[in-house]
Design goal:
Strand content of chain A: over 45%
Distance between the termini of chain B: 41 Å
Shape of chain A: globular
Mean pLDDT of chain B: 94
Radius of gyration of chain A: 13 Å
Distance between the termini of chain A: 37 Å
Number of helices of chain B: 0
Largest interface: A-B, 26 and 22 residues
Number of strands of chain B: 11
Number of strands of chain A: 11
Low-confidence stretches of chain B: none
Order of helices and strands of chain A: EEEEEEEEEEE
Radius of gyration of chain B: 13 Å
Oligomer: heterodimer
Structural class of chain B: mainly beta
Largest sheet of chain B: 6 strands, mixed
Low-confidence stretches of chain A: none
Chain lengths: 115, 112
């Protein structure tokens, strides 16, 4: 089956620093990937759509200069949280749609803690 | 605005019983609805997809119904097992937009 990985699984950083999270599709190509954020006991909220070879599409209220997305290849998308603040602490999850059908395959998530 | 509601209270049932989880939505006309399982600290795992023109879908011990008039989906876990304990998320999708809109999930706890 389709597998999506994320790295790192956990990261703790100081306020003001930048953190990069990688999302990889391991056994399939993904021209599109999605980045979600999930706060405790809340729903997954779509942040942006990552498109290989073009700019990411951000959801309303998500700052594109703060959350930089780069879809470097057909199997890799990265999310960089710039100048992180404690309120950015959350669970970040990426997904990629399957090549057949409408289901999505999610990565295991990255727990970001900003001190 | 679009709204998806799942019962935020945990559902506790005895092993062997059938668990039924509800997903209601408003201000949305989805082309399909999906159910995912999420374990603590993990990403969601796809379970079932049902399209707007389908009434019911089954997969092993799982059954999903979709009523576009009531704007509701029911998710059933039959012969439940403690290993079924997890949070179950419903998600809606539209034709031409592959990103999903998620409900907040319902936690299912199956007691041995």
């Amino acid at each position: 089956g389709a597998v999506v990985s994320q790295h790192p699984s956990r990261v703790i950083c100081k306020s003001g620093t930048s953190v990069k999270i990688e999302c990889r599709s391991l056994d399939f190509q993904a021209t599109t990937m999605f980045w979600y954020r999930q706060f405790p006991k809340q729903s997954l909220m779509l942040m942006a759509t990552s498109n290989e070879g073009s700019k990411a599409t951000y959801e309303q209220g998500v700052e594109k200069d703060k959350f930089l997305i780069n879809h470097a290849s057909l199997t890799l998308s990265t999310l960089t949280v710039t100048s992180a603040h404690p309120e950015d602490s959350s669970f970040y999850i990426c997904s990629a749609p399957g090549q057949v059908g409408d289901e999505q395959f999610f990565g295991p998530g990255t727990r970001l803690t900003v001190l | 605005s679009q709204k998806i509601e799942q019962n935020s209270e945990a559902l506790n049932i005895q092993e062997g019983k059938t668990a039924t989880l509800t997903c209601n939505y408003t201000n949305y006309s989805p082309a399909y609805l999906q159910w995912y399982r999420q374990d603590p600290g993990r990403g969601p795992v796809f379970l079932l997809l049902i399209r707007e023109n389908e009434k019911e879908k089954r997969k092993e011990r799982l059954k999903v119904t979709f009523d576009t008039t009531l704007k509701q989906s029911l998710f059933h876990v039959t012969a439940s097992q403690p290993a079924d304990s997890a949070t179950y998320l419903c998600a809606l999708g539209s034709t031409g937009r592959r990103a999903l809109t998620f409900g907040s999930g319902t936690r299912l706890q199956v007691q041995p």
